[in-house]
Amino acid sequence: MVNIIQATARANIFETVYDLLTAQLSTGTVTAAFIDDAPTFPQVVINPASIKIEKQTLRVDNRTYEAEVEVELFCKKNKEIDQISDEISNDMYANESTLQGYGLYLEDISDSNEDTFFWNDQKIHTKSLTMEFKLNL
């Protein structure tokens, strides 16, 4: 995990979320992209952060920074999707003070896009989690 700084905020946020989930999750492979060459499941794919910057006043130095990180889950069993999404949410909230120490303030985690598809004759269940943060830059 690294301190979040303005010049490299997207990379810093990705690295911090990646490191935390890699260390905390009891099952699954945490990665930056879906592994389709001899994959194992569950897979937890962390996408790059998107950042929103808003000016609060006419002063140049008065801005708020917000970020979103989408995490995609891929599992073979439907119940694994719910278990791993609960584990991710619980781990993130349990480590709020750690995240705050790096400049990330967890605001919300929401889930969406639950679906299934067939890949190499396997039924794969998917879900997305969106993590919303305020940044201390």
What does this structure look like?
The chain has three helices and six strands, in the order H-E-E-E-E-H-H-E-E. It has 137 residues and is α+β, with helices and mostly antiparallel strands. The chain is elongated. The protein starts with 8 loop residues before the first helix and ends with a strand. Strands 1, 2, 3, 4, 5 and 6 form a six-stranded mixed sheet that branches.
Task: Please give a quick description of this structure.
With 137 residues, the chain is of the alpha+beta class. It has helices at 9-24, 78-94, 96-101; strands at 29-31, 43-46, 50-55, 63-75, 104-119, 122-135.
Observed structural traits:
alpha+beta; 6-stranded mixed sheet; 137 residues
The percent range for helix content is 25-40%
The low-pLDDT segments are: none
End-to-end gap: 16 Å
Morphology: elongated
SSE order, one letter for each helix or strand: HEEEEHHEE
Q: Kindly state the mean pLDDT as a whole number?
A: 91
Put simply, the count of helices is 3
Round the Cα radius of gyration to an integer and report it: 16 Å
Number of DSSP strands?
6
The class by helix and strand makeup works out as: alpha+beta
> In percent, how much strand structure appears in the residues?
35-45%
Describe the sheet with the most strands. 6 strands, mixed
